[in-house]
Write a structure and sequence with these properties.
Shape: elongated
Low-confidence stretches: none
Order of helices and strands: HHHEEHEHHEEEEHEHEHEEEH
Strand content: 15-25%
Radius of gyration: 25 Å
Length: about 300
């Protein structure tokens, strides 16, 4: 098969449109169409069903798209390995994690990573959806559960819990709750139980709301919840990894917390030799170690 025609076929199948594929490839629609027809003729089969809404792959087209997708992933991996210098770390690294962990823990620490590797380009994708690492939607993931996908190298970083926090100012103005029943007299700041989030957090929120809380502030990420707590709006449900960086947070109802949530770092087996992945992995593990030391120091002082 002609490699150039396969490249054009893959772009069309991925975009579902001759026009969009042409834009991505910097080719005219007619040029793209000619290449697809020529490929179909060489294979003696139809690869696309054509209709008003765009193009849909035939069964034969699906088989070929599976093959070109595998080829594209392998070429991406080869290109990444080639770009990984023997002495330097540079180029793009796609990292995915949750919105809360990414904004509140990871991003504030990236200064140190860029100081070591100033030419590194990090594409940080923050979302609750679990991206497909073997399909190269991301190179590295930090997730709040053990990855279930095959062919991944995984490292358990730490465990976290969702707990209740408020500021000293808020607690001075409002009587500190002594039991869960007292929480009804306070404004609870949390994510809605139906918002995509760590299941342990959703379960804790459901438990709190069952006490007929008179006022709530629902925010769809932990960054917003934290801002509500820091501005003395109420008592927030937050992950405990925030306490080191925000020492003005005070634990409320110490006996109330979620179950443990494991935090894992994972990346595809095929990126085992990537210097960029190794540099990021080692950096995160070092920062986790520093975080644990600071956490122990805070506990000792208390």
């Amino acid at each position: 098969m002609d490699w150039d025609k396969l490249r054009i076929f893959h772009a069309v199948a991925d975009a579902g449109s001759l026009t969009h594929a042409g834009d991505a490839l910097h080719l005219s629609q007619s040029a793209v169409s000619r290449q697809i027809r020529a490929l179909e003729e060489s294979l003696g089969t139809t690869l696309f069903h054509r209709h008003a809404r765009g193009l849909i792959l035939t069964e034969q087209g699906e088989l070929l798209f599976d093959a070109t997708s595998t080829m594209a992933r392998k070429l991406d991996t080869a290109a990444a390995r080639i770009r990984d210098s023997e002495e330097e770390v540079y180029g793009e690294l796609k990292v995915t994690t949750t919105t809360g962990f990414g904004t509140l823990w990871l991003v504030p620490r990236l200064t140190k990573l860029y100081e070591r590797y100033p030419d590194l380009k990090i594409d940080l994708m923050l979302e609750e959806r679990v991206l497909d690492l073997p399909m190269r939607e991301a190179d590295v993931a930090i997730r709040m559960k053990e990855p279930s996908q095959a062919d991944l190298i995984r490292k358990r970083l730490l465990t976290i819990r969702m707990r209740l926090y408020a500021t000293a100012e808020y607690l001075a103005m409002n009587e500190r709750p002594k039991t869960l029943h007292d929480i009804a007299r306070h404004r609870v700041i949390c994510q809605s139980p139906t918002t995509p989030q760590i299941q342990a957090g959703a379960s804790l929120v459901q438990k709190l709301l069952s006490f007929d809380v008179h006022s709530t502030l629902m925010v769809n990420n932990y960054f917003g919840v934290l801002q509500g707590v820091l501005n003395n709006i109420g008592i927030g449900v937050l992950p405990d990894y925030l306490t080191v960086d925000f020492p003005n947070l005070e634990r409320v109802l110490p006996d109330v917390e979620s179950v443990e949530v494991p935090v894992y770092l994972a990346y595809p087996e095929e990126l085992r030799q990537s210097r960029r992945v190794a540099a990021f992995r080692d950096f995160v593990q070092e920062e986790i170690l520093n975080y644990r030391r600071a956490q122990i120091a805070d506990t000792t002082q208390d």
